[in-house]
Amino acid sequence: MDFFTAQDRARRLTGRLVLLLGLAVVALIVVTSVVVALAVVLLDGAPFAGDTLARALQPRLLVGVATAVILVVGLGSLVRHLQLRAGGSAVAEALGGRPLNLETRDADERRLLNVVEEMAIASGMPVPLVYVLEDQAINAFAAGHELDDVAIGVTRGAIEALDRDQLQGVIAHEFSHILHGDMRLNLRLVALLHGILVIGLIGRMLLHASGTGRRLRSRRGRGHVAVLGLGASLMVMGYAGTLCGNLIKAAVSRQREFLADASAVQFTRNPEGIGGALKVLAAHRLGSRLLATHAAEFSHLFFGSGVRSLSRLTTTHPPVAARIRRVLPHWDGSLPPAPAIRSPRPRQSSASPPGGARGAETLASGALAAAVVASVGRPSAEGIARTRRRLGELDERLFEAAHEPFAARALVYGILMGADPRSRQGQREALEGQALPEVLGELESLEVPLAGLAPGQRLPLIELALPALRQLSAAQHARFQACLSRLMALELQAGALQWALHRLVVQGIQGERRARRDRHLADLAGPLSLLLSTLARAGQQDAGQARVAVERLSSVLGVPLDFVAEPALASDLDWAMARLARLVQAERAPLLAAMSCCVEHDGRIDPEEAELLSAVAWTLGCPLPSTERTAGQADAGTA
Fold first, then answer.
1. Counting Cβ atoms within 10 Å, is residue 64 exposed (0-12), middle (13-18) or buried (19+)?
2. How far apart, in Å, are the Cα atoms of 471 and each of 6, 474, 635?
3. Are the C-beta atoms of residues 145 and 280 closer than 8 Å to each other?
4. Integer Cα distance of 218 and 138 in angstroms
5. HSE on the CB side for 317, CA within 13 Å?
């Protein structure tokens, strides 16, 4: 199942699940409305008689009560949704997690950060924020609405008890949830179930008030009994509705866990990694049970069942033994005597000479587009190893700067400043008037290593810097945004890659407002022409050849495309991307294939072209792994 199919399947599953829960909510609302209406009639002072139920079922009264109940459920869900609108960071903080210090010197924490960074860059997606839960149980989770607000949380027990391969298996499992579209579904479930729970909470409040309130006790006995009955009924129905929703949530979650385990094996090509982590989990004295207050609410997000369940029907995870046998069919049932921690492998020294990052990557022209589409959201063991090697080839000063907020700003400024000397002079003067002196000092200290950047190294550095940049205060963020805008405005010869990296930084920090996906390629001929023409010119200096590539794609896509010969302004490209963001999911695969054809229509992809393709795909929500891997797949397909 490719990335686009998985995303569509997740959306269909979300729709079916919402429909099923919606039916349960409708039934709950109907019963609740009848009970509330009956209580209203009794509290109104009317004597209990045979026609009491008939009076309670009067359409006007019933519709009014049902509307109130719907508003209660809707507002409860909306409030929880707004509480979680920040994405994964809101979930991590609700569970008591703390952001991992990007400059940490703790060997275990540094190993975790390296594993997450390698997996993210190999997957072609933003490096997520990493949180540590100070809990000795072994567990982890991934949460967020979109790729640019993801957070990965890992417990202290997992960091200390798992070796690097096992930790990589766990992180690959969590990235599978991200890439298969599970996160959005999980957070919507949390909001909907909270709305249902509100009914039960109101019932509990009424019971408490009727038992302790003097005013209610001084009323006539019949009214007091009515309030008691109403409170008890609401509490029972609210908790029964929550239980029903939890049963549905658990059934879906168990299947998604098996899929995530299998994907972790596929990503890493190492079943002993995820399998070993599960065996350590099974042998661990504390298991995966978390002590966090909200652990039950977010139980379906975890790597292992974070709460104790009274029934197999309500547990969100399959038995650990069953999961082990799925990834290790020949497992004999033995478990390690105690969790073991291995020393983390040292990161490769920056003194090693750059290898393949400096050379051009030649791709098989015919098979590349299909291979690119098939690779989206599917990192490979080779890609992860290559990413680890390339991160080791980075200058140590640049690698460290990407993890420190002041230096990260300077690093991004240096990467986005143009190659033209006149542009750089004006940009430097603008920064001296806007940026903080500390940032300017960092920029000056990074000038030499930035000048030695190899082609293909800018995008990984920006991806590494995004978590540090997301930690800026509101004032720091505003100043940083102003400086970025000024840099682009003063660029005399802004290239497509410079624009794409700038857009990636902006979107990676502040996120992109989710657009309604209701447009087709045929509706977007203008934006499509502008983007594909820009990519074609970047991949071929000959304007005639670039025109041929766009015209060929026009017939293939069935969309009338006009080749744009002149370089587009950054504002025009932003306009085009904002409209292409509304493209329906089913037609994003053809768009990505067309983008790939534009870049490689001369039969090769240079590292800068690969960065451009990955950056544009990144901002469209299509995590594109390493192009070298795609080349390998294409070669294999034509052999």
1. middle
2. 31, 9, 42
3. no
4. 54
5. 26
Contacts of 175 (CB under 8 A, 6+ apart): 119, 120, 123, 142, 267, 379
> What percent of the chain shows pLDDT beyond 90?
17
Catalytic residue among 109, 118, 146, 174: 174
Task: Tell me, yes or no, if 491 is annotated catalytic.
Answer: no
Three-class DSSP labels, 396-433: HHHHHHCCCHHHHHHHHHHHHCCCCHHHHHHHHHHHHH
Centre a 10 Å sphere on the Cβ of residue 275 and count the other Cβ atoms it contains: 23
Residue 73: is its pLDDT beyond 60?
Answer: yes
Could you say which DSSP state residue 522 is in?
A: G
Query: Above 60 in pLDDT, residue 133?
Result: yes
CB 151 within 8 A of CB 133: no
Number of H helices, E strands in the chain: 28, 6
State the pLDDT at residue 345. 37
Pick left, alpha or beta for residue 395 (phi over 0 → left; psi -120 to 50 → alpha; otherwise beta): beta
The residue type at 471: Q
* CA pair distance 270, 584, nearest whole angstrom: 35
Tell me the pairing of strands 129-133 and 151-155. parallel
CA proximity to 405, closest of 476, 455, 341: 476
Q: Of 529, 561, 544, which is closest to residue 601 (Cα–Cα)?
A: 544
pLDDT tens per residue across span 424-480:
888 888 898 888 888 999 999 998 999 888 888 888 999 999 999 988 888 898 999
- Each residue's pLDDT tens digit, 147-164: 888 999 999 999 999 999
Which residue in 259, 214, 285, 268 sits closest to 379, CA to CA? 268
* Structure-derived torsion over alpha carbons of residues 434, 439, 443, 444, reported in degrees to the nearest 10: 90
- 46 pLDDT higher than 60: no
Please check the confidence at residue 20 and state whether its pLDDT lies above 80: no
In the DSSP assignment, the letter for residue 449 is H
Quick one: tokens of 165?
A: 């391969």
**End-to-end Cα separation, the chain, in angstroms:** 23
pLDDT in tens, 296-329: 888 888 998 888 776 677 788 888 999 999 889 8
* Residues 20, 321: Cα–Cα separation, whole Å: 30
Using a CB cutoff of 8 Å and minimum separation of 24, what contacts does 352-357 make?
352/392, 352/393, 353/393, 354/393, 354/454, 354/457, 355/389, 355/393, 356/386, 356/628, 357/390, 357/393, 357/454, 357/455, 357/456, 357/457, 357/607
Task: Count the residues in the chain.
Answer: 639
